[in-house]
Amino acid sequence: MMDRKSRTSRLATLDETNEEVNLWKQICNALSKLENIQKDTGIIVSNINEIHKRVNLEEGIPASINQKLTEYYRGGIDLSNSEARIIHDIIEKVSVLIALRDASEYNHVIDQKRKKRKLDQDEMMMKKAKTNILAPGTSVAAKQPQQKDKDEVWILAIVISYHADKNKYQIEDVDQDEFGQKQRYMLQPRNVIAIPNINEAREHPELSVGQDVLALYPSTTCFYKARIVEPPSKNKDAPGNYKVQFEDDNNEFQYVMPGHVLELPKPKQ
């Protein structure tokens, strides 16, 4: 039986796998730096104003005070330049974060270099789709090779390549093992299920109540058998998500986004 302990052993490290979280951390760090710079700038401005209050400009500024003012002004200019660079960086990162939020939870960071790469990948995926071959980079649910005395496990993975001579995909587990390595497997197509993106999932007809499915257990990188309780259109508790019950989960309800609820593969003939 697949108990909760076995599920939580593959908790996803969201800070590493979720680009939105990483971007948000970078933005928060930049905002912290910006706050420190603005505090330092405020101190310099206060010092300059204090000197101007003490000095009689009609009598001239003593050389020592003039040197101090010059240092303050130069420091202020440097801080202003740093502030401008950080603000520009924050604006760029916020723009990327907005684009990611509008696209998919598992999209790559959108910058100028990767935009071109993404277009190239999309074009390649369209060509591959004509022959029903999944393109490299496709997110999939992959059935791990059966290990002795262990239950069947489907994991969240990425397609690395397709080997036509063997009719097998090489896939890579998104999770790291105890040695910090990501395992790769050679699997037959029937053991690899493509995960639709958000738009594709929305366009796909809703699965029926009571239907048995494979679903990604919340906060993990493993898919398990589950039964649909409510489809996204009728789920009032978590609108837009499937309400499901996983096998051997104490009859608890869980909520899973449409792209992570997949039809069970057909039994091997």
Structure description:
This protein is α+β, with helices and mostly antiparallel strands and 269 residues long. The chain has three domains: 13-111, Helix Hairpins (Orthogonal Bundle), CATH 1.10.287; 138-194, SH3 type barrels; 203-263, SH3 type barrels, CATH 2.30.30. The protein is built from six helices and ten strands. Strands 1, 2, 3, 4, 5, 6, 7, 8, 9 and 10 form a ten-stranded antiparallel β-sheet that branches. β6 and β7 form a beta hairpin. It starts with a helix and ends in a 6-residue tail after the last strand.
Task: Present the secondary structure layout.
Blueprint: H1 4-8, H2 14-17, H3 19-54, H4 63-102, H5 112-129, E1 139-143, E2 154-163, E3 168-173, E4 184-187, E5 192-194, H6 198-203, E6 212-216, E7 222-230, E8 242-246, E9 254-256, E10 261-263
Antiparallel strand pairs: 1-2, 1-5, 2-3, 2-7, 3-4, 6-7, 6-10, 7-8, 8-9
Helix pairs in contact: 3-4
Protein name: SGF29 C-terminal domain-containing protein
Main location: nucleus
Pfam families: SGF29_Tudor
Q: Approximately what portion of the residues adopt beta-strand conformation?
A: 15-25%
CATH topology of the largest domain: Helix Hairpins
**What is the terminal-to-terminal distance?**
25 Å
Name of the CATH architecture of the largest domain: Orthogonal Bundle
Fraction of helical residues: 40-55%
Shape: elongated
Radius of gyration: 27 Å
Order of helices and strands: HHHHHEEEEEHEEEEE
Mean pLDDT: 81
Number of DSSP strands? Answer: 10
Instruction: Domain count, please report it.
Output: 3
Count of runs of 4 or more consecutive helical residues: 6
Low-confidence parts: 12-17, 106-110
**Structural class per helix/strand content?**
alpha+beta
Summarize the biggest pleated sheet.
Answer: 10 strands, antiparallel
In CATH's first tier, which class of the largest domain applies?
Mainly Alpha
Protein name: SGF29 C-terminal domain-containing protein
Pfam families: SGF29_Tudor
Domain SGF29 C-terminal: 130-269
Keywords: Nucleus, Transcription, Transcription regulation
